From TrEMBL:
Cellular component per GO, a single term: cytoplasm
Organism: Gemmatimonas groenlandica
InterPro entries in the cross-refs: Aldolase_TIM, Methyltransferase_A, RNA_MTrfase_RlmN, rRNA_lsu_MTrfase_RlmN/Cfr, rSAM, rSAM_sf
Membrane-spanning parts: none
Pfam families: Radical_SAM
Binding sites annotated in the UniProt record for S-adenosyl-L-methionine: G183, E184, S215, S238, L239, H240, N314
Protein name: Probable dual-specificity RNA methyltransferase RlmN
Primary residence: cytoplasm
Amino acid sequence: MALPDISSRRDLYSLTRAELQQQLVQWGLKPVHAARLWKYLYIDLVSSLDEMPELLPALAARLRAEMTLGVLPTTLETASSDGFTRKYLLSLPDAATIETVLMRFTGRVTACVSSQVGCAMGCVFCATGQMGYTRHLTPGEIVAQVVHVARVLRGEAPAGAVRRQTRHGLGTRLRNVVLMGMGEPLHNYDAVMQAIDILLDPNGPSLAAGRITLSTVGVVPGILRMAAEQRPVHLAVSLHAATQGERAALVPSARKWPLDELMAACRTYSATTGRRIFYEWTLIEGQNDGVDQARAVGALLRGLPAHVNLIPLNPTTGYDGAPTRTEAATRFKQVLAEEFGLPSTVRQRRGIDIAAGCGQLAVQAR
């Protein structure tokens, strides 16, 4: 029997609750029926249209005929030896693959999700940048990654566990999402913001805006648009160098959006939103982890509401660099604090033994 053609079907994960209600009205159904469907998607975390027995029969028939549930099959799964990190290579309908990472920290669980297949920014030390750009993800493909991690967490709930007093049922609830996986989120602005709107819905995933972080390499128009739209999520900006020449050598997109333009956009963002920015600095031994570089970034960020995330390099086969040593990272942090009053955090390295840096698993699986 021939398989039904789903190429023109809308993905339920791509629709906001309001859009879902509008779709029901177009079908001649009452919008109130969207509430039960929404609960199936984001509270019950169903993985198939067949797992929705309480839907109105007319609605169920329409869904099967015209919609799809964009669950992403797992092509490859790896787990770190310390048990803190699990990485998934997920398959898209066109057979492309993307990476999603589940990371455990004290008191919290974080999902790191992708926004594109590959990336056009070309950062020299990033496996995704070395891969090149293929296409944007849809809002549903972004949301489906978060649902995948939530479903994994629910499945890990111990047998006989007492049901928590949350709508998300058993197990540890996913509370943090970072758009730091494959791709540049601000290069795929509309789809990313649609996905964020869905994730923030209080009747669905119900993530807090303060627990979603979007990381950009410095796409100036996107930063300014986020400011103008007063987007409530955290913004992280990848610096990696404090001068235009040094930054352009690591981040080729800096030639399009030079450092002075980027910093002007960051100042506009902070002034408009009243929010601090997280500035990311990948520490590469002998290249940008010295005291002089610490003082340069301190001077660059002077007067801005900022927090610096210091991230030891995740080595890739396409880049000849090594992660900074612990002593150098500690010294860098001390300079920022003592000489500039800048708060910073040396980020914990997770999943080094399973290629958890963005793009690394996808490259290895080719």
